[in-house]
Amino acid sequence: MTPDLVLDCRGMRCPLPVIELARQIEAVGIGGVVAVVADDPAAAVDIPAWCRLRAHDYVGPGDPVDGIPSFLVRRR
Amino acid sequence: MAITVRGVDGYFGYFDAASTEPLHPAAREVLLAALDDGWADPARLYGGARRARLLLDNAREVVASLVGARTDEVSFTASGTQAVHLAVLGTTLGRRRVGNRLVVSAVEHSSVLFAAEAHQRAGGDVTHVPVDRAGRVDTDVFADLLTDDTALACLQAANHEVGTVQPVDDVATSCAARGTPLLVDAAQIVGRLPVPKAWTLLTASAHKWGGPAGVGVLAIRRGTRWRLPTPHDERGSGRVPGFEDVPAALAAAAALRARSEEAETLAVTHHDLIERIRAQVPLLVPDVEVVGHPTERLPHLVTFSCLYVDGEALLTELDREGFAVSSGSSCTASTLRPSHVLAAMGVLTHGNVRVSLTRTTSSEEVDRFLDVLPRVVERVRATAGVDRL
């Protein structure tokens, strides 16, 4: 899946990747996909949890970027 | 010199009982007396030694009766953590011929998980039982994960971070049907709630019930295959190497007796105070998730997470307002990893606050906390520029 927007959150500690995602989610249209690239260990839990709280879809892990995990979110 | 710890003097809110409670007044008296009467070596044969032995046996008897064990099943360890390590590694060693698998819930205390890691490093297998969003294991899933080569299953009585009480009796039934021993880490419930009866091994920690630190409890049912996983010593207890701290054990027993007598009343009070926090926090603070099971829970503990909030900043601000709480957020952990409990539940790990009440927590302290918290969260969010997200 090719994301519509990639957020480079490498080096950011929690809760910054989730804050960045919240700030940018509306930059894509409804149904658009945002990829959050984050090496913070909390991101793997907090991004899906944020999607649940904000009623967006957590798509799952995306392709790693330079070995750093990414997480895909579809805006609803 | 007197050391005054802010937060236990009745005005400020010391809300971290799940980490430790101040010494129970009943324990203090006994401790002081036992320092004079019980210092001798209980393994020796002269008068003072026999007195120390008597006091130690008395402490074991009291603790055993209050956790539902026989006296000869109970040993004192140097900590709850040591009790867990001995329970896990001693049983896997004793049952090596049966199998090499350890089945543990994903939300066990780190002492269980680190013992499981040690078991794995030594060539053993470990199965983690998942939990639902409330932090509870599913009895059927747990039963399905028990295998013929399972040496030991581990399930906490209640979770230390979110307060969820586990279905220990049902899991114990599944374990018994297969002949699998079950370790119940009862650290959070001993002295607070009735202790489950159907364990094979049980561990607890005295400073959680108002006893002194440095006293753990290891109970092993008669007939359980168990071997000391550490070097033996010459003192002959066979269970826990090293010189027993007789005065501390006695004080721990006194605290547990006093605490058990208060338990029912305190549980009612705590249950209501926590219910107030559970109900009010989501009304007073925007974007908060209260986590843990709403009804199958410890009476004195609640955990919630505040969206977009840095856990460390929140703890620091609450401390400044006089409230001592703890957090499972990664920024508050030395490892920079979020709490494995919150992660296993799939709930927000940042902005996390755990409130756990002591025996002296008052209704006014809780009200004051509910008054202060919304402003503190608002301030932390405003500082980070996330208040309009």
Task: Write a concise synopsis of the structure shown.
By secondary structure, chain A is α+β, with helices and mostly antiparallel strands.
Count of discrete alpha- or pi-helical segments spanning 4 or more residues of chain B: 10
Q: How are helices and strands ordered from N to C of chain A?
A: EHEHEE
Mind summarizing the main beta sheet of chain A?
Answer: 4 strands, mixed
Helix content of chain B: 40-55%
What's the number of extended β-strand segments of chain A?
Answer: 4
Q: Biggest interface between protein chains, with counts per chain?
A: A-B, 18 and 23 residues
What is the chains' assembly state? heterodimer
CATH homologous superfamily of chain A?
TusA-like domain
Largest β sheet strand count, sense and barrel closure of chain B:
7 strands, mixed
Number of discrete domains of chain A:
1
Q: Mean pLDDT across all residues of chain B, rounded?
A: 94
Strand content of chain B: 5-15%
Task: Explain what the structure shows.
The complex is a heterodimer of chains A (76) and B (389). The longest helix of chain A is centred in the middle third of the chain and has 12 residues, at 43-54. The relative contact order of chain A is 0.28. The mean pLDDT of chain A is 96. With 76 residues, chain A is of the alpha+beta class. Chain A contains two helices and four strands; from the N terminus they run E-H-E-H-E-E. Chain A starts with a strand and ends with a strand. In chain A, strands 1-2-4-3 form a four-stranded mixed sheet. Chain A is 28% helix and 33% strand. Chain B folds into two domains: 13-21 and 262-383, Aspartate Aminotransferase, domain 1, CATH 3.90.1150; 25-258, Aspartate Aminotransferase, domain 2, CATH 3.40.640.10. Chain B is globular. Chain B is an alpha/beta fold. Chain B has helices at residues 25-37, 47-67, 80-94, 110-121, 139-145, 168-178, 246-284, 311-320, 340-345, 363-384, and strands at 13-14, 74-77, 101-105, 125-129, 150-154, 182-185, 201-205, 216-220, 288-291, 301-306, 323-324, 352-356. In chain B, helix 6 links the parallel strand 5 (150-154) and strand 6. The A-B interface holds A 13-15, 18-19, 22-23, 40-42, 44-46, 48-50, 52-53 and B 287, 289, 307-310, 329-331, 336-338, 342-343, 346-351, 384, 386, 389.
